[in-house]
Amino acid sequence: MAVTFSLPTVLARLADGHATIEATGDTLGDVVAEIAGRYPRLAPRLRDETGGPYPFVTYYLNDEDIRFRSGFATPVTAGDEITIVAAIAGG
Length: 91
Description:
Layout: E1 2-6, H1 9-12, E2 20-24, H2 28-38, H3 43-46, E3 57-61, E4 64-65, E5 81-86
């Protein structure tokens, strides 16, 4: 089941410039794992060393924050849209 995974510009450069990626999986974690496998430079920005989401990276599944669902265990279905928002700090 294909879903659309959207990256912010700062992360798209690590995915060969692709801001939108089609991927498959049964859960959000499966989708992230597939994308991490295809784009190894992007992988450490998507998940922590245990394979879970970073607290400062927010994933939205169809405009709903996955922190209020089941995190990476949240099921996905064909046609879903996943958007990632990475916190950017400045000073």
